[in-house]
Amino acid sequence: MSDAIIPQGLWTGDYYNQGTGKNDIFDTLKEECGVFGVFGHPEAASLSYYGLHALQHRGEESAGLCVTNGDEFNYYRGMGLVKEVFDRDRLSSLHGERSIGHVRYSTNGDTSLMNAQPLIFKYRDGDLAVATNGNIVNAPQIRHQLEQSGSIFQTTSDTEVIAHLIARSSKDFVEAARDALGQLVGGFAFLLLTNDKMIAASDRHGLRPLTMGRLGDAYLFSSETCAFEVVGAETVRDILPGEMLVLDREGIHEDRYAEPQRKALCAMEYIYFSRPDSDMNGSNIHAARKRMGQVMAQESFVDADVVTGVPDSSISAAIGYAEQTGIPYELGLIKNKYTGRTFIQPSQELREQGVKMKLSAVRRVVEGKRVVMIDDSIVRGTTSRRIVNLLREAGATEVHVRITSPPFKNPCFYGIDTPSRAELIASSKSVEEIRQEINADSLEFLSAEGLISAVEGDNAKNYKGGLCMACFDNDYPTRTNFEGEEKFGCSC
Ligand code: SF4
């Protein structure tokens, strides 16, 4: 089985999570990837197809699937959406009861099939497939060391370092994987597949989500629980920080490669990335967002005629804000769902108009009204200004912006494509300066405490709610710079 033959894009960075991040006209943060695995089901490929489809929002650039019955690997990877990469014939050719699959978002310029996952390798003990979500912060240094000692890399993906570390070890696969995972620093969720084993592993802080489900006797793994719902599986539990689950003919073995550090699940999963029907760390995403809106209303009420949310991620919070204040919730903004990955982006002259191709204001809803506009974050500020202006052009008399996260001031090192700190508007401007920049009548951000309380809901309290909030507070859970002297915080 081979990869789809598609012209390769121009690679402009050294490593695939490097975050060249010019972003697009819509100025949003980008998720990096989603993973889905099956162990012990005769229709592993079909389950993975539906599972990956449910995770499509985590990556639209490429999709891939590797399946085995214990002998040879069957795999296919291609550029595009899951439904574009796989058709019925392709899927039916992928026989086996174990599989790992992947959907990928790539940074600008990195649209190469070469980096589509799962990555597939042959090594002395057989076949190895690797799928990951996240970013290995010290991958460039490990890669450099490996290259110095003779390793030849097939891709520009930092995921490949784990395969080289495993292949160079003289230990058996499980011990080699344990050693390899122990060398990695960053935020990652790994699925590793060999001819007779599968490993699911999470980084020491649980930065990127990975959860386990059951379907009959089969074990399933997914970045989000929404994929379990789609295939009729039940959710069992999250993979714990530093944990590696090993699956083989005897069943599942709970193991770990490192002692857990403080739990630090990415706060942006709750705020923006994950699907509302997913649960994470015991909290439903929709319910958490709704509570963010409620807390936001308690923290920064403003008298207005309608509340509206920027679709899709801010709808839940807007409903919460409306419920708490008694101000009616209305669909004041409509998203054009067909402006997708393949949409031809407008020229520089038309960029100001660009947002209208994705969002429309509903004139009958907002005309002559004081509008509260709920959004999840402000990155550069350009999109917020455009949306505020959309509402004004549609006749809104006032636009009050409420953001259901603290100011986004610091770049992410754990797999989210963010602009450099200098491009993040909140890193250099005050709330009042941002308000002026986005042309809003008022602007307020959710406090860090409010965010934590909204995410926790009724759950037990953890340190910081078990969240990474580094893009807000600069408190990175790991080292972020491995060049020269040890350095914590931003390395930009
Ligand atoms: S720095 Fe921000 S985006 Fe990155 S993992 Fe932490 S919370 Fe998520």
From TrEMBL:
Cofactors demanded by this protein: Mg(2+); [4Fe-4S] cluster
Gene Ontology MF annotations: 4 iron, 4 sulfur cluster binding; amidophosphoribosyltransferase activity; magnesium ion binding
Gene Ontology biological-process entries: 'de novo' IMP biosynthetic process; purine nucleobase biosynthetic process
EC number of this enzyme: 2.4.2.14
Domain Glutamine amidotransferase type-2 residues, every copy: 33-250
Family matches, as InterPro entries: GATase_2_dom (IPR017932), Ntn_hydrolases_N (IPR029055), PRTase-like (IPR029057), PRTase_dom (IPR000836), PurF (IPR005854), PurF_N (IPR035584)
PROSITE patterns (alphabetical): GATASE_TYPE_2 (PS51278)
Active-site residue numbers: C33 (nucleophile)
Pathway terms, separated by semicolons: Purine metabolism; IMP biosynthesis via de novo pathway; N(1)-(5-phospho-D-ribosyl)glycinamide from 5-phospho-alpha-D-ribose 1-diphosphate: step 1/2
Domain of life: Bacteria
Transmembrane segments: none
Binding site for [4Fe-4S] cluster: C266, C412, C468, C471
Catalysis performed (reactions): 5-phospho-beta-D-ribosylamine + L-glutamate + diphosphate = 5-phospho-alpha-D-ribose 1-diphosphate + L-glutamine + H2O
Binding-site list for Mg(2+): S313, D375, D376
Cofactor, how bound (note): Binds 1 Mg(2+) ion per subunit. Binds 1 [4Fe-4S] cluster per subunit.
Keywords: 4Fe-4S, Glutamine amidotransferase, Glycosyltransferase, Iron, Iron-sulfur, Magnesium, Metal-binding, Purine biosynthesis, Transferase
Alphabetized HAMAP family for the sequence: PurF
Family matches, as NCBIfam families: purF
PANTHER family: AMIDOPHOSPHORIBOSYLTRANSFERASE
Similarity comment text for this entry: In the C-terminal section; belongs to the purine/pyrimidine phosphoribosyltransferase family.
Function: Catalyzes the formation of phosphoribosylamine from phosphoribosylpyrophosphate (PRPP) and glutamine.
Protein name: Amidophosphoribosyltransferase
Annotated source species: Paenibacillus lentus
